[in-house]
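>> Question from a student workshop board

For tomorrow's exercise we were told to take the sequence and the ligand below, predict the bound structure, and bring the output to class. My setup keeps failing. Could a helper post the expected result so I can at least see what it should look like? The ligand is LLP.
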Amino acid sequence: MSRSAHPAGPRHADVLTEGHYSAPPADLNALDPKVWAQTVERDADGVVTVGGMAVTRLAEEYGTPAYVLDEADFRARARAWRTAFGTDADVFYAGKAFLSRAVVRWLDEEGLNLDVCSGGELATALSAGMPADRVAFHGNNKSPEEIERAVRAGVGRIVLDSFQEIVRVAHIAQSLGVRQRVQIRITVGVEAHTHEFIATAHEDQKFGIPLAGGQAAEAVRRALQLDGLEVIGIHSHIGSQIFDMSGFEVAAHRVVGLLKDIRDEHGVELPEIDLGGGLGIAYTSDDDPREPHEIAKALTEIVTRECEGARLRTPRISVEPGRAIVGPTAFTLYEVGTVKPLDGLRTYVSVDGGMSDNIRTALYDAEYSVALVSRASDAESMLVRVVGKHCESGDIVVKDAFLPGDLAPGDLIAVPATGAYCRSMASNYNHVLRPPVVAVRDGEARVIVRRETEEDLLRLDVG
Ligand code: LLP
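>> Workshop helper replied:
Here is what the output should look like for this input. Compare the format with yours to find the bug.
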């Protein structure tokens, strides 16, 4: 049985063309800073450290699998977004990417606002002390109870997603004697270059009110007449994991076009526009994300130019990055359980987690990288597929990657860039327990979300 990365034969060639890599990286021990959290490095013994802590020690103390989050990196990225947009704009971290009370406090301290999209996210934000006026409440089907809670709490804005919701929020706000600040979410008809399930501005989908056919203008018309609402702006989110700014350009052009129509029809210049989130990160070395200052410059220039063209005052811009802040700051630490070479195909490496801690590969065909982190190795590389422990053949964590050929049970491997949409989309499939989130900073580790226990599972099962 061969464990080499380059076995000859047509079947292997087929596998390679299906996959993402055509050749193994030159040095399997190297850690590309593009995909790993900022403080990650390999020490003199070959062990990977993060925030000054060895992964071997983290595994001993907290077990595997575990999401390991670099707090300094999170804060640095949050700050970079904040600084890039300056005081004339607002950065709302999209809590759906990953939310915990520690994260809320970091955001508060770094001067970011928070976007929540459910009662649960709102409760987390408020319980960690985020001032309600810095919270935006999203969602295409907020319940009346959620709306009432948000209005009573005094959230800074509710983003309205349908004609029915315009009336619903107005009614609830009015009955509470509140004039609720709202934005209206529109779909501008942009096809973001991303997976269909995470593209959100084309018209045939559940979010927002289409600009097409005058529907968005009609929504604004109705909202402006309702006493319970203060319409502060228009919202557009075009999708996720986007690298190309041209989608934002078209979106800004169309949103500003609507602002102009509103001014012409109602004599009102809405003071804000929100361009959503969706900025891409590097999951593999092939991805080249932009820096926050480049994004801020590009978006500000686009909006300013469009507004000058339309003779409008430039509105206050807000953005809602989730993945771009938290995504690169964490990796998932797994222990290798079984190594199964399939002759002429590839080697299946089974880890102690899987699709319950990272559904993105199965759901979106997402690409990830992986590295051996508990030691360095000079062994020849082998083509691997990293799979989980679930009873499902689609339980794949990393579809195609190279790892050292001497990989063995008990080794620790880590999948970088799992900070966004992994813990937040984790499940209990097969009654596998959801991993903890361990935050590491300056040589100290702290559990910010603890590992689930069998007791947790049984507590919900009332017999
Ligand atoms: N704002 C709104 C209104 C959104 O719907 C989203 C994401 C964001 C901001 C943040 O987008 P980000 O900057 O994180 O890309 N589960 C998928 C992503 C779904 C995103 C949903 N909305 C994934 O794992 O890729």
